[in-house]
From TrEMBL:
SUPFAM superfamilies per the UniProt record, alphabetical: UDP-Glycosyltransferase/glycogen phosphorylase (SSF53756)
Organism expressing this protein natively: Liquidambar formosana (Formosan gum)
PROSITE patterns named in the record: UDPGT
Annotated protein name in UniProt: Glycosyltransferase
InterPro entries in UniProt: UDP_glucos_trans, UDP_glycos_trans_CS
A Pfam family the protein falls into: UDPGT
Amino acid sequence: MGSETRQLHVFFFPLMAQGHMIPTTDIAKLFAFRGVKATIVTTPLNVPLFSKTIQRAKDLGIEIHAQIIKFPAEAGLPEGCENLHAANSQDINSKFFTATAMLQQPLEQLLQEHRPDCIVADMFFPWATDSAAKFGIPRLVFHGTCLFSLCTSETMRLYEPQKNVSSDTEPFVIPHLPDQIKLTRMQLPGFAREINVESDFGNLIVRAIESELKSFGVIVNSFYELEPAYADHYRNVLGRKAWHIGPVSLCNKDTEDKAGRGKKASIDEHECLKWLDSKQPNSVVYVCFGSTSEFPASQLHEIAMGLEASGQQFIWVVRKGKTEDAEEEWLPEGFEERMKGKGFIIRGWAPQLLILDHQAVGGFVTHCGWNSTLEGVSAGLPMVTWPVFAEQFYNEKLVTQILRIGVGVGAQQWARMVGDSVKREAIEKAVKRMMVGEEAEEMRSRAKELGKMARRAVEQGGSSWSDLNGLIEELRLHGSSSKQGNNIWH
Ligand code: UDP
């Protein structure tokens, strides 16, 4: 059979966390729409996170398959904890990552049974490169972040500029990048800050990098025009093989697709749209901190006061965390009554894409998780950046310093899950800067331009469209040349 006609089969194996599963599901969908057989591998409790997408694709005649592997019970996690979202303490979090290493054997069992042509496995499964090699197939890595952050973290690893400062608050410059980027040690994850300290998570990251270097390449949810200097730097200076195929969220075209990503929304999406329909264009601020970050009651209180003082209309997503279980002591007295018609709180999960894409929304207060950031860019929105953990402090630099479509709220301290404390005055000021005045207009017009570029990138002939075609073609060629060789996997 010729390379043009043979159906390629790709396994997608995301980390069990919304910020990884949501874009990987979109990527699987993009592959399936190009005629590739796409199979998502996950554990039982994570299937509902993408089953609606599978059903919607099926209605359009596109098959996306699911393969289920058992979550390792021996990891000692609480019942029902199969997603990082539920791992809400340091101890459970670290057990969760230990558990993921136990997925190697069941994954290899599936590779043995189904013999796909390629596996796209999350960066947090470093062993997947060896698993793929056992079956003679390429392994692609998906990190879930942008090229700027990939370049930044790799450069930090190579040159360790954080060693050259004497305190956690003294800024250092990251060398050899296309722009002059300054950070402080406070903005780095613990394993990168405490440079001589060995940690399980630090070791996992080291193994992830080693396995990436041995892999077939990297899939990036970004587009060339957004960060051309870093796309070139990653390939030409850091020597990585990468395909940028995003923004992948743009494959969700209608209301149902946009509302059905990840979890079921905690509000009726039509009610939410009706509320937004009643508002003027660019008049509502959307506030959301992703699927994992949690704020203590005192910080939620400051956010409420800051939003009220800003005088702006808003939709604010408050994740239900352990602090809110009993009473909502964070809610200022009479807040919801005073804000009636002006703002509302979504407790739980919001239909984020639907909200961001509505013309009434004019700004996004974000924790700078890469999916949210890129969804904001795609919607042409200026942002208030409030990084919390992971690589979010890097993403903030891209938004505020390079793209110049956002203002920082002033978060200074990297903190796993519980964000830095920011005062109401700073929140009020940043929200006003994003929404009113000349600076706001300039940011909005740059953001709108980027939004248009994002759409062009995924259209036929666009940069991401072409990169995805190139990748699929390369995988086909790789598959047929391996087959003509010693037929190692059949
Ligand atoms: N999201 C959503 N509703 C919510 C919170 C998050 O749909 O209430 C989606 C959001 O659109 C994004 C993903 O969840 O696609 C979060 O990923 P991100 O990288 O922004 O942050 P993380 O959750 O990984 O910190």
